[in-house]
Amino acid sequence: MIYDCAIIGGGPSGLNASLVLGRAMRSVALFDNNRPRNAVTHASHGFITRDGITLAEFRRIAYDELRRYPSVDQLLREVVSVGRIELGFEVLDSSGLRVQARKLILATGAKEIFPEIKGFDPLYGKSLFNCVYCDGWELRDQPLVVVSEYPTVFQTAKLLLNWSKDLFVCTNGQAPLSSEQKKRLQSKGIVVIEQPIAAFIGQNGGLEHVRFADGTQIPRTAGFVTPKLVQSAPFGERLGCERTESGGIKTDEWGRTTVPGLYAAGDASCFTPSQLVFAAADGSRIAMGVNKDLAEEDFELSPDMITN
Predict the structure, then answer these.
(1) Do 50 and 17 reside in the same domain of the chain?
(2) Cα-flanking dihedrals φ and ψ of residue 30, to 5°?
(3) For 247-295, what is each residue's pLDDT tens digit?
(4) CATH number for the domain including 186?
């Protein structure tokens, strides 16, 4: 058989796209390698009715709901290659299964590349995070550090003032802030440190100090570190998709890429903001775009449209 749509990626965008297409009575092959970007996250926040839900529980609920729709096939496998065929696309997974589909959604997400700072890994997801909206409430009124090498650190610091007035901004040897921006931050009591960070010091998942290259250190109990985001899978590039300036896959308002029949959803197309609720909503929007295009094609092929 040829599916109406294949979806690569079992994160919130891919799962919600599968739900919408299943409810539209479309046949769907959902590929999920079960390696989510937010695997270290203890809970997800900011999604009404799901605030504080764990990743495992979110996935369990999602897959239970998808089982209501028999046209959605859940394929818990790694995709190794994708190619164009006359009817659409062919997806090959790690077991050797080949699946053909008229349309293809890339919901493969983004991959975070954090600055290489000693001591980061044991603290990430416990006292160091990257999204202020996801974890700001839990860190409220604590002495915080913001580590970023990018100009967006100015906006991040302004946002965090609503959660804590005890802030240090560390740029890890880079100079993303203008003199005027540094003065404005300092006028609000925010300390800016530009020298390189040697290590995060802590234990049992809790940050205690930030140590700098000159040996000095500051006491902090938690903070936010800004990563660089890149595509987590190469399929968009291999199929010839155009990219945005930030590195996401370029799409129109319905998720269509520059490759006919190919769509991108969630973090694969828009790197920020990286919240579950945004990704799920994007999956719904793109699925509607896919169904719209399929309906247009089916209508044109309908026997009722053929005249003698």
Answers:
(1) yes
(2) -100, 115
(3) 899 999 999 999 999 999 998 887 666 688 999 999 999 999 999 999 9
(4) 3.50.50.60
